[in-house]
Specification:
Number of domains: 2
CATH architecture of the largest domain: Up-down Bundle
CATH class of the largest domain: Mainly Alpha
CATH superfamily of the largest domain: MFS general substrate transporter like domains
Order of helices and strands: HHHHHHHHHHHHHHHHHHHHHHHHH
Distance between the termini: 21 Å
Number of helices: 25
Helix content: over 70%
Length: about 525
């Protein structure tokens, strides 16, 4: 018989003997994190510097005209690259996440680092659509191999008393890397796009140094168990069969369905917003408010804020860095808040805030309101994303931590694959400045189809400015006022609202079935 628990308390946390589990305070939680935790945190930081150095600017690189060193493709074509990237990165861990449990975490981390170096070099040496596609797939493969070993190590090096803080600090280190990477990319791409890819291949190679200091927790037990299985003649089951069998449980299936919507909404910010900022947001208002009408000549400020070479505009990656910077500085505070709210409440509140941020982006075309939206999204992300890691880790049996952390990427993959198709496609159709400029050239300025065909992709707006005789700022305003640019963001925001409703229902279902879960699975609602 299912037991209905009192949900008025913000957190339900019981050990198997039904005694209350004592939480550690902030300083005690941080100080309890051991040597291995900080090593894998350092490796994650380095990996994220390189990864976000490319990922944050990928849409800008793809849609920049060839004359500026970009690929000169549309957002829809960029979406096909994103789909391949998302499919590989998200589904590789689902089926080979258990590989780290079998052959060792250190070995898979080393393999992933080599793979990622190769991916960045493909992007650098082959600056074409298919070259970038190949580089993205190889990079995604390396990332998919990397995650289970790193996160499995984190789970095995923490305990129930400090796991919430561990995931929060880990996520904070992710965002330190996420903050540094785009700033490096912003300065290097001003010189040449290929510099970004070469730099990232060099950065990720630094993880070999940390691997020399890494020691896998529980390695002796893993090897002993493997030796016993061999001695007993136990044949190892197929990894993919074992993964599918383990996944076929209601709480994992429901989790996947609901969180697919969450990640659909979540990834839109990182895949589409940088291009939206470049197209429509006048960031010079922030620069002039900070430094005056002349902007800034300070190399230090330009580097720290991601300001362009003229010192007058914050580049899209600089604006996006508010997200990484906030999480880098405050994630441990919101980890403590998430711990007090409890897993499901934290997920619900965080998802709702992320959704609200997308509505702000769609509703107001102002650099200052964009900062408000990114701020709101960042708070929501800090409450929801690390907590989703904790949720799936708590469900996992002790000998299948890496496998379950591979499952964590399945809803991310479904949501990201769907978003990588619909997000860029919707933006390209309804909101891309190039698409709207191309249409206006034909409709209002009478350019023939042959004349349109002679304009390289990425240069329609520049031609519109030249033909119209107006300034770029004036034509941007004309296009924005004449089109429903915010529609794309309202669609994305509604997906987030539906996910929030799904989380509320899922949380109540977990509580109602809690008495039938084993002692380890009970921690899911704590």
């Amino acid at each position: 018989m299912s037991q209905t628990l009192d949900t008025s308390s913000p957190d339900i946390n019981e050990t198997p003997d039904n005694t209350s589990l004592k939480r550690l305070g902030l300083l005690a939680s941080i100080s309890s994190l051991g040597y291995v935790f900080w090593i894998v945190g350092g490796m994650e930081l380095i990996e994220r510097v390189a990864y976000y150095g490319v990922k944050t600017v990928a849409g800008l690189y793809a849609t920049d005209p060839v004359s500026k060193g970009g690929l000169g493709v549309t957002m829809t074509e960029f979406g096909t690259i994103l789909m391949a990237w998302a499919l590989t990165q998200s589904f590789v861990p689902v089926f080979i996440g258990g590989l780290a449990d079998r052959i060792g975490y250190k070995e898979t981390i080393a393999l992933s680092t080599i793979t990622k170096i190769f991916g960045y070099l493909l992007m650098a040496f082959f600056p074409t659509y298919w070259g970038f596609m190949a580089g993205a797939i190889v990079l995604a493969l390396g990332t998919g191999i990397f995650k289970p070993g790193i996160q499995g190590t984190l789970v095995k090096s923490t305990n129930a008393k400090n796991s919430t803080m561990a995931w929060g600090v880990f996520y904070q280190m992710v965002n330190i890397g996420g903050w540094i990477g785009p700033l490096i990319a912003a300065q290097l791409r001003i010189l040449d796009w290929q510099n970004v890819f070469f730099a990232c291949s060099a950065i990720i190679s630094l993880n070999f140094v940390l691997l020399l200091m890494y020691k896998e927790p529980g390695k002796e037990e893993r090897l002993a168990a493997k030796a016993k299985e061999k001695a007993d003649g136990v044949e190892q089951s197929s990894l993919w069969r074992a993964s599918l069998k383990e996944f076929a449980q209601p709480h994992l299936i429901y989790y996947t369905v609901i969180f697919s919507g969450f990640w659909f909404m979540f990834m839109a910010l990182f895949d589409v917003l940088p291009v939206h900022i470049r197209d429509w947001v006048d960031t010079s208002t922030i620069v002039t408010a900070l430094f005056g009408d002349g902007g800034t000549d300070s190399i230090a400020w330009r580097s720290a804020l991601g300001i362009d070479g003229e010192g007058m505009n914050i580049l899209p990656e600089g604006m996006m860095n508010l997200n990484f910077g906030m999480i880098m500085l405050t994630c441990f505070i919101f980890s403590l808040l998430a711990q007090r709210l409890g897993t499901m409440r934290s997920l619900v509140v965080g998802t709702l805030l992320c959704s609200g941020a997308l509505f702000i982006i769609g509703g107001v075309n102002s650099a200052w309101f964009l900062l408000l939206a990114i701020f709101t999204f960042s708070v929501g992300e800090m409450l929801s994303s690390p907590t989703s890691y904790k949720l799936i880790a708590n469900i996992a049996p002790d000998d299948k931590k890496a496998m379950y952390l591979g499952f964590k990427d399945l809803p991310l993959g479904i949501g990201w694959v769907a978003e990588s198709y619909f997000g860029p496609m919707l933006y390209d159709k309804y909101a891309a400045k190039e698409t709207l400029a191309k249409s206006l050239l034909q409709q209002d300025y009478g350019l023939s189809q042959s004349a349109i065909n002679n304009i390289p992709q990425g240069e329609y707006f520049a031609n519109l400015v030249a033909v119209s005789g107006q300034s770029a700022q004036q034509m941007t305003s004309v296009l924005y006022q004449a089109n429903n640019i915010g529609l794309v963001w309202f669609v994305m925001g509604m997906v987030g609202v539906l996910s929030t409703i799904g989380l509320v229902i899922y949380g109540r279902w977990l509580i109602s079935t809690r008495s039938s879960l084993d002692s380890q699975q009970k921690a899911v609602v704590d």
